[in-house]
Amino acid sequence: MSGTCHLVSCVGMKLHRAAPARDLYVSPWFRMARRYAETRGDIWFILSAEHGLVHPDKVLDPYDRTLLTMPVGARRAWATLVEAQMRDVLPACIPVIVVLAGARYREFLGEPLSRHADRVEVPMQGLGIGKQLGWLKHALAG
User: Fold this and answer.
1) Does the global pTM surpass 0.85?
2) Which residues form the DUF6884 domain (predicted)?
């Protein structure tokens, strides 16, 4: 066990019916990020704009909410929710948390993540969506 947890952000492209969270999000980016998380870490969760920290097996109905359009106060409240959920599901401190999520999803999670892990990695930080897809494709290939 490597002691790595991956956090993958939700995406707008979803099924039109309830499904386990791992299957609800259907964009090419999410599918590659999911595969990366499943093959590289011990555990992974989804950062859902609607539900906070979600286990991949949890069945969710489709929703239409994104952090990209939330006011700053709502994003802070979301990060507080995610931190509380992390306390419930993650060990007190794990070696590494890898975040596969954009800036809005990481915006208020820096300190909470640092409290839960010895190291926080954001391997695609600063990359646009096209370069993120390329990074994921390359990482999955080799």
Assistant:
1) yes
2) 6-137
